[in-house]
Design brief:
The chain has 216 residues and is α+β, with helices and mostly antiparallel strands. It has two domains: 37 residues; 168 residues, Jelly Rolls (Sandwich), CATH 2.60.120. The protein is 20% helix and 31% strand. The protein is built from two helices and twelve strands, in the order αβββββββββββαβ. Strands 1, 2, 5, 6, 8, 9 and 11 form a seven-stranded antiparallel sheet that branches. The longest helix has 32 residues. The radius of gyration is 29 Å and the shape is elongated.
Length: 216
Amino acid sequence: MKRKVNYLIGLSFLLIIILGSSYAFSKYNSEVTGEAEADIANWNITVNDCSITKPDKNNTACFEESVNDETGEVTLIKNFGVSEIFYSNNGNDNVVNNKIAPGSSGSFKIKIRPNDTEVSIKYTIKAWLATENVSIKLYRSDPNMDNKIPLDEEGYAGIIKYSPNNLNYEDVITIYVDWVAEVDEETNLTDTELGTNGGTPKLKVPVQIVFEQYNG
């Protein structure tokens, strides 16, 4: 009799487990197979006050953009010419201020605003000289700093993590373009070529910025 009672109790528990599992599975199944609606996360980044997804074609401050449909990466590129680079003579009275010459230091800024973007973002900035030149050296700053760090081929990777307060946030990276003083015959020749180019030196600094969603 006792064995029969234990058997019935065990069977009852088994039925409870089976019914409970079936209910849980059915509930999950109905939820995942039913119609679901979700809003796409907002992606509203600007660079130098230009939208990266809808650039103003008539605004010379805007970058050209392309989108990778598979990865979702957005790539921007723009040439910064002499007229867009502010030069300082670094206190050298032998050089006119805001003119490019040996010993002067130029700079321009890349301003990245996440605005109301609803995901964390990663950006990679690369800059180089359109024409290789031993007299010109490129540097960059950390975001919102004035320090100078040599800009290598890999560029600089920055991350802006999502925050409800990002609406008024901005990463500002300064790109420095320094014309080193004449130090040897090679740089002396390059300096002469740049300085005798009809008053319009052919100096262009292409900048590429790649944006992607950050999941780290």
